[in-house]
Design brief:
alpha+beta; Hypothetical Protein Pfu-838710-001; CHAD domain; two-stranded antiparallel ribbon; 22 helices
Length: about 650
């Protein structure tokens, strides 16, 4: 059994991450060449959390190189330094628990869990690690890892960037402490006392045990308006959706949103008076003290029972097993829904997603929260285009305007994040001595992003945004207008069952219309961008109705996503080339009032421009096979089979 000693830091600042990537030395230590590793960790436990109760975490790791089992002890944190015992066992491949071969991990787990069939996935961690050796002279003392981490549990997800420094057998803990001191002196680092696993585990629960106990007490004894809020939190903690909770409790979804937002930002104090919380906490503490006293009396009586007398039954206290909350995975459409009702449900589903990611967008610690919030606005805007020709959406015109403004404001920051990630990917391919080639460009990019994020936060705090959210929510709380059932030619098709083939094939036809331009040497790049927009419409339409379609729709969606991703990379490269040419002309991110008198000398930026231009050429030349995948007979046949499940 080995002891793992490591330091962990959360990196919320993009500029710090960029500097850490290119860092070559710190104090008396040097950093070696980077290696990128991608890995997937799945943690297992029994439904009653037997391994956690015993103080262990069980992990199966999958990477391109190998698969491995690890049993880790949970504990040993002093500041930013973690000490943990762990046992490891190699696997031939990722396997279900019952198929794990004999070895030290399986042996220890079986001592804690009688039946390996009872082990089930608890949470998952995916990460891309950029690993570098840290040396004192020629002696490697630690491994330095800059990690892009995705934590998942059920339907909840959290993405973070973090720095992990793990001591090697040749290193000394005093050296690790000196390295940490040098880091802290130079960078604004935030220590992370919890492991990745502990943070992933936290995603499986909404309420802490203390909050759950308080909410239970409030729901049972407080005034109706407070009891209702407590019932909502308990329902969400059990995994009930916000929409279902609103319907059951007889309140507007807008109230559910406000209460949930208040809890996420302020805790229970955002929903209940402090005096009420203090009073109930005192009662809970008194009851716990009485329970412990009673248990002590039982234990004492058991120890002093005369020989031959049976002792009272033992009592075991176990922590409540947290239940993983879940959000709606689909809008909840029915084949018999009117198209108007399907449109309302679709908007409501993605509106919930937009609001769900707003706190993360405001915090700015995870750029994927902003991405997901922007995607939700895009899906709603696309829904107007897909459903619009069959409905009268004139009354919803102000909502479309608000969606456009929200999407543009989010996009101004997101586009810069994408640009920065692409630049960093390019830098990762360069040797260490060339890492600073585009530093002036990165500094200009950082300044531009800070300005765009300031504008975003100002908008999210503005009355205009709050009015947009309230108006959207109140609109979705009631049925949308239905078109007249009859036309001059007879009854109008109105159900999803009748119209879904038309909606999907119309989007597919819009994509296939670009066929004559694919593969031509003189096709303008703007045509590929138009095709990307059409492909996005097809993808979103398939996603809107995926819960009603047959399993064949999955094949169609995978191919459309591949098409859209390819065209998205192409558009990103085209936009990047324009921005880089502008930078080489002006020496700044945006055109200045006064143009520079001297030409901009930035050979590193020019080299990166050449790299992106070559990327454009490569993406265009490799596009025809991607295109063929959604225009061949297999794709059309899969669409027909998927639709057969809903139209019959």
């Amino acid at each position: 059994m080995a002891t793992e000693i490591e330091a962990k830091f959360i990196l919320t600042d993009a500029a710090t991450r960029a500097t850490l990537r290119s860092l070559r030395a710190l104090a008396e230590f040097t950093l070696g060449r980077a290696q990128r590793k991608a890995m997937r960790d799945v943690y297992f436990d029994t439904p009653e959390r037997a391994l956690l109760s015993a103080g262990y975490a069980l992990r199966q790791r999958e990477s391109a190189q190998a698969a491995q089992l690890t049993l880790k002890g949970l504990g040993g944190v002093q500041g930013e330094v973690h000490h943990r015992e762990e046992i490891e066992q190699a696997l031939p491949a990722p396997l279900p628990p019952v198929e794990w071969p004999d070895g030290p991990v399986r042996e220890r787990v079986q001592a804690l869990v009688d039946d390996l069939n009872r082990l089930q996935p608890l949470c998952e961690i995916q990460q891309v690690r950029t690993v570098r050796p840290v040396k004192a002279g020629r002696r490697p003392i630690a491994l330095w890892s800059l990690d892009h981490v995705t934590l998942s549990a059920g339907h909840k997800r959290l993405r973070t960037w973090e720095l992990e420094i793990e001591l090697t057998p040749d290193g000394q803990e005093e050296e690790l402490q000196r390295l940490i001191a040098a880091l802290r002196a130079r960078f604004p680092l935030q220590a992370e006392p919890r492991s990745k696993f502990e943070r992933a585990l936290a995603l499986t629960q909404l309420l802490s045990p203390q909050e759950r106990a308080l909410c239970t007490a409030i729901a049972q004894s407080a005034k109706p308006r407070y009891a209702q809020r407590a019932q909502l939190l308990l329902a969400l903690d059990r995994g009930e959706s916000g929409a279902a909770s609103a319907q059951r409790l007889g309140v507007s979804p807008a109230y559910v949103y406000r209460w949930r937002q208040a809890f996420q930002t302020q805790g229970l104090a955002g929903l209940f008076p402090p005096a009420l919380l203090a009073q109930l906490q005192g009662q809970i503490d008194e009851k716990r003290a009485a329970d412990h006293a009673s248990l002590s009396e039982i234990a004492t009586a058991s120890d002093s029972s005369p020989e031959g007398e049976s002792a009272p039954p033992s009592v075991t206290l176990t922590a409540p097993v947290p239940v993983a909350p879940s959000r709606r995975s689909a809008p909840g459409l029915s084949p018999e829904d009117s198209l108007s009702e399907a449109f309302r449900k679709t908007l409501s589903f993605h509106f919930e997603r937009m609001l769900e990611h707003e706190p993360g967008t405001r915090a700015g610690e995870d750029i994927e929260a902003l991405h997901d919030m922007r995607v939700a606005t895009r899906r709603m805007r696309a829904a107007f285009l897909v459903f619009g020709p069959y409905l009268d959406l004139t009354p919803l015109k102000p909502l479309r305007k608000g969606l456009r403004r929200t999407g543009r404001t989010l996009g101004a920051v997101r586009d810069l994040d994408v640009f920065r990630e692409k630049v960093q990917h390019y830098l990762d391919t360069l040797p260490a001595e060339r890492q600073d080639e585009v530093q002036p460009l990165m500094e200009a990019l950082t300044q531009q992003r800070e300005a765009a994020r300031a504008s975003l936060l100002a908008y999210l705090d503005s009355p205009a945004y709050r009015h947009f959210v309230d108006r959207f929510q109140s609109t979705l709380d009631q049925p949308l207008p239905e078109p007249p059932p009859l036309t001059a030619d007879g009854p109008r098709p109105r159900n999803v069952r009748h119209l879904i083939p038309v909606l999907i094939f119309e989007r597919w036809a819009a994509v296939r219309a670009f066929g004559p331009w694919v593969g031509l040497s003189d096709t303008p790049l703007t045509r590929y961008h138009q095709l990307r927009i059409a492909a996005k419409g097809l993808r979103y339409t398939l996603e809107y109705f995926s819960e009603l379609l047959g399993k064949e729709a999955k094949l169609c969606l995978e191919r459309v996503k591949a098409l859209q991703d390819h065209l998205g990379d192409l558009q990103d490269a085209v936009v990047a080339c324009g921005l880089l040419r502008d930078y080489l002309t002006w020496g700044s991110w945006e055109k200045p009032v006064t143009l520079p008198a001297e030409p901009v000398i930035a050979p590193g930026v020019a080299a990166y421009l050449t790299y992106r231009q070559q990327e454009v050429q490569h993406l265009v030349s490799t596009f025809p096979p991607v295109w063929a995948a959604i225009t061949d007979a297999d794709f059309g046949q899969a669409l027909l089979q998927a639709l057969a499940h809903v139209v019959v």
